[in-house]
Specification:
Length: 385
């Protein structure tokens, strides 16, 4: 991590807070808008953001949108065409060729969610451009976070977004002209918060997010609180959490109680036993779909972003988190996670987990074995397991 001082970092809860802030920022753009997302849906949220990008393009703003080829595989081409007609430049990261084709690189997705406007404001988080109620049957909205960033930290984010755009454009033989440069992003101080931009790619930053978590966990003295949609960490993170619990740190993890990936959920539950035996609290969130990826350590450090603690995020996908060194911000994230935990989560009892039926145990370990095989095929089995 490279902490940068002088920022203003604002926590945004769910799409209800995120999308109005994003649309307002795009509507205020004068020069440049850049958006990266794993999922863009043709629903109320997607259309609101899409219309804002169209308005910006019509008034002469350079608008570039990067969507993931797998995450947006079901997006109606007419929706994308409507953006392009208005002047929005759209690129797909690793387009899907065929649902039946196999490539080891197929799992290396663009999973981060970033938006940048004019070098003065940015958004980083876990919220896809997707309505809070889409894709699940719960009456409550999807539970997720993003942050709005102003200040010098933007100078760390712009080159990362630009580099990926240039790479994908070059590979697709578009926009290779030498004059294609990112806008100057050297904003002055906007607040008093120190923060770091931590991202994962498949080149120089392959292990940065895992290292961020390991450093924060190793430094914990009182409490580690994690809200994570997909929780199946590799052995390094698992052992770090167990060691923290052994030295008296309260370690509490909130994960999905309802999941859109049932096999993955069963594989994740195969790890519960060892974690519970080491004194780690596990809470399954059942009020709605938990999609958040956030953590707080000792009420002084917090992170919000797109990276889960699972092999897909930590070893394969392009991810982005913001780490914030602020007691006020950490307290806000902690209070939010604790409130959701009380309102919508169920603690997993250690003794009852020991006595669960043998069929449930077998299902978990079979699913975990499938995950091990999949990670081996992907080439990351040793590091993850």
């Amino acid at each position: 991590m490279r902490p940068v001082a002088g920022n203003r970092v604002t926590l945004l809860r769910n799409g209800a807070e995120y999308f109005p802030a994003l649309v307002a920022a795009i509507d205020s753009a004068a020069e440049d808008v850049r958006v990266e997302t794993y999922i863009l849906a043709d629903d109320a949220a997607g259309r609101a953001v899409g219309e804002a990008m169209k308005r910006a393009a019509r008034r002469g703003v350079s608008v570039r949108l990067m969507i993931d080829g797998f995450g947006c595989r079901e997006l109606d081409p007419a929706f994308v065409d409507s953006l392009r007609v208005e002047g929005v430049v759209v690129q797909r990261f690793r387009p899907e060729r065929s649902p039946f084709s196999f490539r080891r690189s197929r799992l290396r997705r663009l999973h981060r969610k970033i938006a940048l406007v004019d070098g003065r404001v940015g958004f980083v988080g876990g919220i896809n451009i997707l309505d809070d109620h889409s894709g699940h049957a719960h009456p409550a909205p999807r539970y997720d976070y993003a942050v709005r960033v102003e200040g010098p930290l933007l100078a760390e984010i712009y080159p990362v977004v630009h580099r990926l755009w240039w790479l994908v454009a070059a590979l697709s033989r578009k926009e290779r002209r030498p004059g294609f440069l990112p806008p100057a992003a050297r904003p002055g101080p906007a607040g008093d918060t120190t923060a770091a931009f931590v991202h994962r790619d498949n080149f120089r930053h392959r292990h940065d997010i895992e290292a961020m978590y390991l450093e924060a966990i190793a430094g914990a003295r009182r409490e580690i609180l994690i809200a994570c949609a997909y929780f199946m960490p590799g052995w390094r993170v698992r052992h770090a959490l167990m060691e923290a619990a052994a030295r008296g740190v309260r370690v509490a993890v909130m994960v999905q109680g309802w999941s859109d990936h049932r096999v993955f959920q069963h594989a994740s539950r195969a790890l519960y036993g060892a974690l519970l035996e080491h004194g780690i609290e596990i809470h399954e969130y059942e009020r709605s779909e938990l999609h958040a990826k956030a953590a707080v350590v000792d009420g002084r450090w917090a992170t919000v972003g797109s990276s889960n603690l699972d092999p897909f995020s930590l070893f394969l996908a392009r991810e982005a988190n913001v780490a914030v060194f602020s007691e006020a911000f950490a307290r806000e994230v902690r209070d939010s996670i604790e409130a959701e935990m009380r309102r919508g989560a169920r603690a997993v009892p250690r003794l009852l987990w020991r006595r669960r039926p043998w069929r449930a145990r077998l299902t978990g370990w079979l699913a975990y074995g499938c995950a091990r095989i999949a990670m081996g095929v992907a080439g990351i089995g040793r590091r993850w397991s």
